[in-house]
Fold this sequence. Notes:
By secondary structure, the protein is an all-alpha fold.
Amino acid sequence: MENRSEAVRGALGCLVVAAGGAAGVLAWAPYGRHGIFGGFEGTSEWNVLWLGLPVMTLGGIAAGFALAALAGRKWRRALGAAAVLAALAGFGVAFDVLEGPPLACGPGC
Length: 109
């Protein structure tokens, strides 16, 4: 029975990590739509695709991995995943990976 419970925990962990990756892509989608298809004057910001999508997807995977490790009470793995998540967040802030084109001006422009 021990092997079966380990297999179920492993499958659930993979599902949590996959859900984290999907959540990262879904969180990126609004930025990607504005960045790729242009906003103000039809300009496109391709860094949203080349940098933003991988950072958000890997961030979601790292968050899912951290949650799965916390649920399994594997503190060192959870801490490592949190460190990867912090590094990805730092990279995202440093390179402004979710910066899209300027939004359309309001009535005051």
